Structure prediction request, 587 residues.
Amino acid sequence: MEFQAFLPKYMTETFHAQEMPRQAQASRINWFENGRNNGSETQPEKQSGQTITRPDQAHFENGLLNSAYLKTAENTARESIPAVVKFSDAIKNKDENPKDGNSYQLPKLILDGSIITTDPRILSQAAKEAQKTTAKELSPPAIAEAPAKPQLSEKPQPAERNRPREVHESPDKPPKAIDTRDLKEYLHGNGKGSGDGKSLPPIAEDFQRLGLTTLAEQEKADRLKPQIYVSQKAGDARQPLGSIENPFQSIQQAVDKAPPLSVINVGPGIYKEKVKVGRSDLTIQTDRGQPAVIEPGKGAGGRGDAAFSIGSDINNVAIKNFEIRNFTGTEAGIKVDGKNISNVTLAGNNIHSASGAEGIRVYGRGATEESRVRNINLVSNKVHDLDLGQLEAMPVNGNVSDFRVIGNAGYKLNNLFIDAIGGEGKSPNKELDQARRGTIEFNYADGISSRRNDTYGREPSAAGIYIDGAKDIHIRSNYIRNSDFGIEIASEHSKLNASEIRATGNIIENAELAWLTRGGEKNRPGGARDSTVANNLIIGNGKVQTQENVDLKTFHVKDNDVFPTINQVTKMPAAIAQLIQLRKSGR
Prediction:
């Protein structure tokens, strides 16, 4: 059997820009069965190329091609780009022949971290990924019924395009009439609220589901990528390490050795690990119905300082569906912290039971626009039962742009739930030390209160959503109940304003002190300006608290409906009214 590989033109720059290391990270080489995939979008033009012998067992060391063979491949590649490079003399070993005629069983046949495969689906997807010269922004489906298309631009999308497909109603539209009987059950559920951590009310379930729908395109692409497996059960050592028959037994080992564009599937069980994700182009996931549990606290090993730590210069990583618990002594359940980090998705994780650590942290420490943290997606996570002290459950802080916080649930938290922050010195550049261009939507917050927090003297001061010196943030279609404050738009730092904030279509119920707070305080003398809070539904406390340094000419609070109790509500924000109708109709 004869195989061929090609080096597309778009990889030429990479080859000439850097020296090929042992794992041949200078470029990806895709393998095709000779004569297969004619007419494919990834099939190269037929060109004369140099010939090298297909690697055999002698060319491998510890599952990787050795340096001598890589050097030969590198020299051949440099001389023949973008010509075809032919490989002959296929390995005769039974375990290394294609198992199904489409792909190799062994993931160890690696050049530049890419699994050798003839599966045209994987190759096509890999080629598409490699062709992207700019980071791919995970973008939710448009409002229209047309199929969703991924957005390649890093520029923020217009608000009306940044909605899950099911929700056609804009949060900027006036409220719609609603039957109160439908509303109470939808908002409050079975009466248990979120106290048991399982019986979230229908609105929270719908929010979570809506968030997950925005990942459909990404998950479709993931199914076409090489699959790596982790299990606590030992496998068959005769099979390739990382295969389903012989899985890795630690997540860190899989992260370190999986090729780029891989999906790492973690089996059920309790993993006492602190995983450092030091490589790009990986999806790390577990089954939603039977998730792996990560306990990164006392007694856990690993190189990270959270269950999962993502640092500088890491791109295109997703972490999905894990239960993360008992992480006291770490910095966070999941940590994204550094510079030049992009396209990170944290979705479907259940993070709980810790003291003195944040649930999900996103810190941008870059000093330039180019080195900012960008395109971060916090989707449908549950964060609860945390003793936060003066920390926040889900902070986005510093030089961070183009982020989305959608479909998450926060409850039983004794400080702030979602917090977009500027001015705290996370970036050395004051001009860029400000979270910006973000969307916070369809999130559920219940019982966010510092009355259970000794560091604040048990005084109420926590908000469901807090904008602290951030800029250009959309807050829409969220439900916040039983919190000290509903939404707070302010700044704790002198000469820094929260600005260009738009809060529309939200429901705030039974805020203890005020449903809306804006401006700074004497001891925290920031301000707020150029913002609009409109078309929100307020149940119970209708107080708006206006503090210092608010530009009343540019900060508008208007057209918000206030009802004393839930039984008196007659209309709802349009987007949430649509969700109620969809649930009633069984859709």
User: Anything to note?
Assistant: The longest helix spans residues 67-80. The domain at 176-227+261-492+566-584 is CATH 2.160.20 (Pectate Lyase C-like). The CA atoms of residues 52 and 73 lie 7 Å apart.
